[in-house]
């Protein structure tokens, strides 16, 4: 496996459209060594579907970031609340924290939230008028999940825009100083929010969350870290899920018309929309703790391992004709929410928010179209997630 000379995941062409890069790399080898960062460091990128599923559950791939960087200068200054979340831990620490998180997104809890989500979506679209243009990202895909997760955390309404902006900055692949600064703004804010709620106990979502954290044995730092994870993971990927799904449907008129005529088909279409353009392009950091094999390919100990759901979801070995949006496809094996013990616990909430956003849009403005279909769209410059910066549509 000869590594490319430059990191293919930092090429501007990758940010615009990662799928040709993924396809080329997967055809070369589904487990491939690539340059990563500066100083000649190497990582292993997994682009095959079977290989990705195996890697997600491999016992010798760790998510303990602190363990990997112990003795290795990272050159970063991330706030601990952001750098040491549940996502950066292994069992038993991960298991203990996940027990607190999972009930927050149970089927029953999400069912209780659906009327609130529908009300927020309706309010966001209440000022829209047929024949006008809106940026669907700025006016729906961002504020809907931000509002929901901030409500869950008890974030005061005047602070929500700032928090969304800091979370947005966390995924800027072009400016590490900006990322680090945003992590401190988020960590400091949430530390103050948690400490204030502790000092003035009362009713509401945040006191309930703090009670759950206490019952689960989480200390102050772990509680703040959990709040940071809920904030960032709870809206960033859902924003991209909604934006990518709407774009895919607008670019596939037959699929759009099918859901417009029968919105009850939307829940069954979500898996294919997630597979077709995953909001998670590359999963969060893992590293090999010993020499291991994935899909018959060797990965030596001590290397970062990047699992790419965006690539795996377009693997023709798992999904024939993978670049085609096919609402009749069984896409339940997609990896957009991960796989195994680290599978996204917030998946039920993300699905509910996307379903309600699409249903409200298709019901209120059933003939919406891209404002300038031939114009190129701009995408976030990050390899972790895939999402639009703007999505101009004309309401109808």
Q: What's the short story on this structure?
A:
The protein has helices at 12-16, 19-28, 49-56, 65-69, 80-83, 93-101, 107-125, 136-141, 143-153, 160-169, 176-199, 205-215, 220-250, 253-261, 266-276, 309-312, 347-364; strands at residues 31-35, 42-46, 61-62, 133-135, 286-288, 292-294, 297-299, 304-307, 369-370, 392-394. The chain has 396 residues and is α+β, with helices and mostly antiparallel strands.
Task: Looking at this protein, list some descriptive labels.
alpha+beta, about 400 residues, three-stranded antiparallel sheet, five-stranded mixed sheet, Cytochrome p450
Protein architecture, described:
The protein has 396 residues and is an alpha+beta fold. The protein has one domain (8-394): Cytochrome p450, CATH 1.10.630. The protein is 49% helix and 8% strand. The chain has 17 helices and 10 strands. The chain has helices spanning 12-16, 19-28, 49-56, 65-69, 80-83, 93-101, 107-125, 136-141, 143-153, 160-169, 176-199, 205-215, 220-250, 253-261, 266-276, 309-312, 347-364, and strands spanning 31-35, 42-46, 61-62, 133-135, 286-288, 292-294, 297-299, 304-307, 369-370, 392-394. The strands form 3 sheets. It has a 5-stranded mixed β-sheet with strand order 1-2-8-5-3, with helices on both faces. A hairpin with a 2-residue loop joins strand 6 and strand 7. Helix 7 packs parallel to helix 17, helix 11 crosses helix 13 and helix 13 crosses helix 15 (266-276). The chain is globular. It starts with 11 loop residues before the first helix and ends with a strand.
């Amino acid at each position: 496996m000869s590594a490319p000379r430059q990191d293919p995941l930092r090429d501007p062409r990758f940010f615009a459209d990662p799928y040709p890069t993924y396809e080329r790399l997967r055809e070369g080898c589904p487990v491939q060594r690539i340059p990563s960062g500066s100083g000649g460091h190497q990582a292993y990128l997994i682009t095959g579907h079977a290989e990705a599923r195996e890697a997600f559950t491999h016992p010798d791939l760790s998510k303990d970031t602190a363990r990997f960087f112990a003795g290795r200068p990272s050159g970063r200054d991330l706030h601990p609340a952001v750098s040491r979340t549940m996502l950066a831990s292994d069992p038993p620490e991960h298991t203990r924290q996940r027990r607190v998180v999972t009930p927050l997104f149970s089927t029953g809890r999400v069912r209780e939230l659906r009327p609130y989500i529908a009300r927020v979506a309706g309010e966001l679209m209440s000022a829209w008028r047929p024949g006008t243009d809106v940026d669907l990202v700025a006016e729906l895909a961002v504020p809907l999940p931000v509002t929901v997760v901030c409500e869950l955390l008890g974030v005061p309404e005047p602070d929500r825009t700032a928090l969304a902006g800091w979370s947005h900055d966390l995924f800027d692949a072009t400016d590490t100083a900006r990322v680090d600064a945003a992590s401190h703004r988020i960590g400091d804010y949430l530390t103050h929010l948690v400490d204030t709620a502790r000092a003035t106990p009362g009713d509401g979502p945040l006191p309930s969350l703090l009670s759950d954290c206490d019952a689960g044995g989480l200390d102050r730092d772990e509680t703040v870290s959990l709040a940071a994870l809920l904030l960032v993971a709870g809206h960033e990927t859902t924003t991209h899920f909604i934006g990518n799904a709407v774009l895919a449907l607008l670019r596939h008129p037959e699929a759009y018309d099918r859901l417009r005529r029968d919105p009850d088909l939307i829940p069954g279409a979500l898996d294919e929309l997630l597979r077709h353009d995953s909001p998670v392009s590359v999963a969060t950091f893992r590293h090999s703790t010993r020499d291991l094999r994935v899909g018959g390919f060797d990965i030596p100990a001590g290397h970062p391992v990047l699992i790419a759901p965006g690539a795996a979801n377009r693997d023709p070995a798992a999904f024939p004709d993978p670049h085609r949006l096919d609402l009749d496809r069984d896409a339940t094996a997609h990896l957009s929410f991960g796989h195994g013990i680290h599978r996204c616990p917030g998946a039920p909430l993300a699905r509910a928010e996307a379903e309600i956003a699409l249903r409200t849009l298709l019901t209120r403005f059933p003939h919406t179209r891209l404002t300038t279909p031939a114009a190129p769209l701009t995408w976030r410059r990050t390899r972790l997630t895939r999402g639009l910066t703007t999505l101009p549509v004309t309401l109808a």
